[in-house]
User: What shape does this take?
Amino acid sequence: MTISGAARLAGIMGWPVAHSRSPALHGFWLAANGIDGAYVPLPVRPQHLEQALRALPVLGFRGCNLTIPHKHAALSIVDRVEPLARRIGAVNTIVVGSDGSLEGRNTDAFGFYQSLRAAASDWSAKAGPATILGAGGAARAVVAALADAGVGEIRIVNRTLTRAQAVATDIATPQTSITIHKWDEAGAALRDAGLLVNTTSLGMAGEPALTLDLSVLPRSAPVVDIVYVPLETDLLANARRRGHPVVDGLGMLLHQGRPGFEAWFGTPVEATSELRASILATLAPPR
Ligand code: ATR
Assistant: This one.
């Protein structure tokens, strides 16, 4: 698609960044909406992050996404941090203001919640305790989304308990009780749960498998895996066989991009089945 000299600009900063699907994602929406704009990969070394972010307004960029390893470091560089991003401890979206200032936002919680609602429409925040595997950056966004949606009890299961404790302390709200559980007690933490979410890297291509006995998890509880390579992890295959609603990790990737796109390019967008098919094609192993 051709762009004019007045094209709106955005991109993704990461190191490395070549693996990112965000250019394909935003490129799909730009083309589908006939927008005069471009979204480009921006390979930025960690030591150059501040320089690169400050260059955004100078270069006329509307903003950018951030990926590994920049999400935490950006908190102390931008001019304003949205409260949710501060609570999660990570910025994944930067919006350049009309005065050239930088605002840091986090859209991962939104992305997780929207993908859950879209793929498991019968689930509600009142369905019972939510069990979260993992306590990294992704877990923090998931726990914030669920606490803000009104889930009354969240159980965090993690190999390193101190990290789980830090998530509980940082993300807690008065309405939600957050408990922490040892990794070898994961099975027991599924009892009477209304939702299970894997946020660990287990089950990802090249990582060890996630083996978990789901027998005490009620069959009405959706099982979510935020891993999307492979799309159908062993956890999801096992959950599907048992009759649970399953939610794969691609939805979160698609939905988290929506708020940034709207802020930069001025048009609201959806995570349609056509978009999903288009991004799925980029995940297929080369033949
Ligand atoms: P992200 O930002 O994507 O969430 P991360 O911060 O590296 O990534 O977190 C990875 C999560 O996977 C952590 O919860 C990690 O557990 P620890 O906090 O104990 O490191 C979990 N994880 C990774 N490998 C694991 C393994 N072999 N067994 C159990 N948990 C594992």
In short: The first strand starts at residue 8 and ends at 14. Residues 134-139, 158-160, 163, 183, 199-202, 208 surround 2'-monophosphoadenosine-5'-diphosphate (CB under 6 Å). Residues 137-149 form the longest helix (13 residues).
